[in-house]
Amino acid sequence: MKERKTASVAKVLAIVNRRLRVSTCSSDTRQGMISVLETILCAANVYEGFRYLTEEEMDANGMAFADPGISKSGRISDDSRRQYHASPLFFSEYVKEHELLEETT
Fold first, then answer.
1. In a domain, 4, yes or no
2. pLDDT at residue 68 greater than cutoff 50
3. For the chain, N or C: smaller number of CB within 10 Å?
4. Distance, CA of 55 to CA of 63 (rounded, Å)
């Protein structure tokens, strides 16, 4: 029997936060990511809320005005551009996963 492999909640959170920030996929696709992530966070009892990304965060990724989620005024026109907060229970693991993703992409 193969050994079972699982991903940590911190790793899933880091991956989804990055994709919500830099992805050029549709808003519907990002909403799907959000739905799965919120289900995982609530099931693990570690949901800490989210915040909407700022115009500067989008500009830093070269996404402003090219992405359909950003209006020409720089305002986020769909609510799928967000970042979820990491629970204090796994914050240090989340930071490590986030840094690893930023280094490898």
1. no
2. no
3. N
4. 9
